[in-house]
Design a protein that fits this description.
By secondary structure, this protein is α/β, with parallel strands linked by helices. It is built from 4 helices and 5 strands. About 30% of the residues lie in helices and about 20% in strands.
């Protein structure tokens, strides 16, 4: 009598919902409908005002005669405020955690659902092997939705993958 074949274990895909200051990773339940939250990240300093993080308002600077650049406050196109530093640090740390989870075999692949700038920043900070594990990307902020709505959106996203 032949032995019953074991069902192959489906790959564990983490569905990462992120914005500039919060992130949650979900995994599809194997037996039931729905998803389980496997990890959360939070960076409250990335939601604070710059003044709360210690930055003063810039002084007045007027463009010199015939110039369009106000050299007293303009930088090279990169926002250098404390809040932006906090967001960049958060997204770098998030990418590091995702790469570590992948290396530890906690997941097989990752799908990122985040606003476009956030998703691009996360992907930029992922090392090569972790980038190869990227199974999908969609540009929405779902972090503040109720669980039922998140589950419905994740199901729709999963079926489009």
């Amino acid at each position: 009598m032949p032995q019953p074949q074991a069902k192959p274990i489906p790959p564990r895909c983490w569905y990462l919902l992120a914005n500039g200051s919060r992130a949650q990773a979900y995994v599809k339940r194997a037996e039931d409908s729905g998803y389980d939250q496997v990890r959360t990240w939070d960076a409250p300093e990335a939601r604070m005002k710059d003044s709360e993080l210690g930055e003063d308002k810039p002084g007045r600077a007027f463009a010199a005669g015939g110039s369009v650049r106000r050299s007293g406050i303009e930088l090279d196109g990169k926002d250098d405020s404390p809040k932006e530093h906090a967001k960049r640090d958060f997204l770098e740390s998030l990418a590091d955690d995702l790469a570590a989870a992948l290396a530890e075999k906690q997941m097989d692949s990752i799908a990122i659902i985040a606003p476009a700038p956030v998703a691009h920043a996360i992907v930029e900070n992922l090392p090569g092997p972790a980038r190869k594990a990227l199974s999908g990307e969609e540009h929405h902020d779902l972090t503040s939705l109720p669980h039922g709505e998140i589950f419905a959106r994740l199901d729709a996203f999963r079926h489009r993958m």
